[in-house]
Amino acid sequence: MEEIRLGVVEAKFADIIWKHEPISSGELVKKCALELDWKKSTTYTVLKKLCERGIFKNEGGEVSSLISRQDFYALQSEKFVDDTFGGSLPAFFAAFTKRKALSAEEIAEIRRMIESYKED
Known about the structure:
The protein has 120 residues and is mostly helical.
């Protein structure tokens, strides 16, 4: 999949769609007017761009996602680890925990995650 990025404003727009999908394009225009102070033309312009980038689709006046919010941010996280730490999750984890202490609950959750991924 080609790299998909969202600017800050695009991310706010995308979050509106992910939160309410499927959503009619008319309802999306109303929500963007309230939450982003956008005009109808701005909403449709940004929607068209994000549809062309393969994130959303607008069919028959109904807007929905082609990639879930969770999958989108998972891809962004993977790219960050690849670009910043040469793809090394242990290097990322070491850098992260150097400045932020983990709670006992977080440590336990990480252990459960590792155990669930161990190969037999």
